[in-house]
Structures
1.
Amino acid sequence: MTVNFGVVLVTAASEAEAENIAKSLVEHKLAACVSLSPIRSIYTWQGEIHSESEWQLVIKTDMAKFEALKTKVQELHSYEVPEIIAIPIIAGSEAYLSWIGQSLDLQSGV
């Protein structure tokens, strides 16, 4: 079995929303871990420039779970168009990557 780990970035409007999304992803074994940080985003939306406080979710997962993860984020998210960006992990500590696999209930081959 080939495992393709990645990090998915999602921003949320509030700490409560970020925590709700994070807990749901971990509970459904779509993420091994989700780190949350307050950030400031400057972006264009509907022709206007916005500057907002948001929460960044850094989601560690197996990319085979990406479609289900994306669906769950869209189900729980308040934004019309939430950020959902996947970045592959090309290298990492074997012990940490193994832990991700165990947390996601992946079979051997991690």
2.
Amino acid sequence: MNDEQLQQLSRRIGEQLKKRQATVTAAESCTGGWIAKVFTDISGSSAWFERGFVTYSNEAKQQMVGVQDTTLQQHGAVSEQTVREMATGAAKAAAAEYAIAVSGIAGPEGGTPDKPVGTLWFAIAGPEGRVLAQRQIFAGDRDAVRRQSVAWALQTLLNEFLIN
């Protein structure tokens, strides 16, 4: 997905959020703020996106969005448990109705046999405590993995939470 397609997706998300008078936040690790950038590429996005969190280190995940130390020790940063806590913690910290969390291994180093390069965990939190968590494995170089991650997260927020 190219930059223009990401912006179109972001614009559609913004329209749906405005209809709901709702906001979204993001807790990003390997995407490094790319989701926030795509949201803020849209003029008027301050109506539905107030803040995001770049929680690259485990310490940042704990301090900024409330991930428990025991979760990180037992499951690691790239896990369903961690992204669920990131999403719910970010939504709470930002007082947002929706939150996207992403943590993964964009490469080229850092992969293991259990979690190869390109492995990402996503969680999207919505109203009434609903959280969707899913693992994806993307191919390509670091930039390609990160771009696919942003696209997948935005498309999933739109499809699973906003147009149903």
3.
Amino acid sequence: MQKRGCGIRTAADYRERLSPSLWALVAAAVCGPMAAVVFSPLDTTLALFIGLVVSLAIVIGLLAVSPVVEVRAGELRAGRAHIPVEFLGDPVGVVAEEARTARGSGLDRRAWHVIRGGIDGVVTIPVTDPDDPTPSWVVSTRTPDRLVAAIQRAQVRLRTPGR
């Protein structure tokens, strides 16, 4: 379901970019020195420049394509998808072993997944829309309690008249 707005942006109740961990960025940056080694027989200065450009391009690319999880204007957004909170049930946030189960053996293949390695927390939100074939959303988050609270606040605002 997609809503068209008039271009006015409201403040988000919750917003988190699921960026890669520092170790993943460091590992990606190692591609630069490998590229420099390839070009070092041609010219050392050129090789260093190419290595720097490759490292920066990969790190910036990883950060730029990181999905965003957001609760704004009565809608949950996770990556490319969004759904009004009126079609969501009670969210459940988990960490540690429960989160590993939610991302692994407990994962429903029909659910909408926005899962990122290196992020421990997971929030599972059931979809209550009878016309939606997706039974739930499973979303990685560094702060499951804050995402759960933001979804619940948006649901309360929706049910409270005069707001």
4.
Amino acid sequence: MKKDDIRRNIKARKTLLSEEEKMAAAEQVFNLLEQTAEFMLSDRILMYHSLPDELSTRAFIRKWCGRKHFYLPRVNGVNLEILPYDESRLSLGSFHIEEPTGTDTSSVDDMEMIVVPAVAYDRSGNRVGRGKGYYDRLLAGSRARKVGVAYDFQLVDEIEADPHDVQVDVVITQNNHIVIRKFRH
């Protein structure tokens, strides 16, 4: 299936979810993430601030922000910058996503784990994003552990990967914990 077809199918599936189903799915997925060695051993974690149609990261960030150092991306032209998470320093940025403000950017090389958003993943770690390539550019060359989180139906049979596409190392859905590459700390 082509990436545009996957995007269309997943978007249609997401519209069928109730608020209760969205909250329950996020809780299940992030409970699984919390139990992984990757999460337990990581202190500096790049998250994403979820859009309404994405698996919500907000409760998870609030739960752990006192014990882990979270960072969020901010769009700068065609690239993403990384800034520390501070709930009091968020503003609506590109694509109507709450982004961190300030000038204290960090390097992707400082991140130990990156929770990567996507429209869909496959069991080989390939992903379909929203089509702008922001995360592929950010993740290229990063040695951080890359973890994809998603609803069960966002796990598809196969995604055709382009040469510039960056795979994730782990995919976690409500009922799946797929390790593509082992973690080396």
